[in-house]
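Shipment paperwork, digital attachment
Item: protein structure file
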Amino acid sequence: MDSSPPCPVSPRGEMSSSDTFKNTIISAVSQLSTAYNLIVIQIVHVIVENQYCGGDKCPAEVTIASTACLVGGVCGELTFGYVGDCLGRPRALQLTMALSIFGALISSFAVPLTDDDRTVFHFLAIARFVLGLGVGGVYPLSATIAAESSDQKSRGTTTAIVFSMQGVAYVLVPLVAAACLGIFGNPGVDAYGGNKGYAWRVPCALGALPGILLIPFKTVSRKQAAGAPPADLAPRPGLWEVLQMRRYWGRIAGCTLGWFLFDIPSYGNSLFEPTVLANVFPPPGNAGVGLTGGIDDNMCWQLLIVALIALPGYYVAMYFMDSIGRRNMQLQAPSAQPCPNPNPSPS
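Attachment content:
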């Protein structure tokens, strides 16, 4: 039996429908930025690998660059949730978006660090770790802001809308890459410094665009309800105090396990999808991974098809969320890949 006292809860403030809508849009665009920046490396690394490694010849370097953002993301998630409690959600979200903008722009200027051309991936890894810090912070903050801005009835749908931007980003990445390859041309195999690499630099830089567009805007906190006592008179428990309360252990375990089961196949498939597809559609001879031509030779279109298959899953889940129930939907989510559950919280 949990003998800990009940948590004091501050009165829930008021928020206009326009402020709720504003917070939802800002959260959705932030989530779009997060997903885009996480997975843009899936096509960027193929172009860079062709250009600087002569094809699929530097897998170790590619792995480092591909996973650096995830490592930074873990650090960001563990840090900025707490920062959001200290500084407030709006300021913390702006800080994380600033890191995302910086990391995305620096990634677009990647060059080999030594005479070994493969070290271009080391540059990318450093830049994407910084990017990951911002991405990891945006991830929980945007969802929390959206949930806290909604009433009890619409909270699940609002959070699902925000997370559905992941699916939109997965569609945008191959479209943007295909457009850049069409405009700037494919650097080709063994082009090295002879090609400026705009076909991959521009997609990296575009990851900063959502954050730049959000600079003039700031999420709105709930106003204190009329007649309610000031929030600072209602002390709230800290993180460690909450973790010691047994009543929350089941919810925390269920939520973290749900995310764990979702993220492994989701990001594992997304980041290393080109490797799988390259084995399904092997390039002829010593040619690099195909990025132009028909469906058998163009990885952009292959990635787009996979993304389009997954996209409806977000909106199907959104539609049936209330009728099926969030817990029931959560239980079926791991078996429904690649149709992701946009609200993986058992609460």
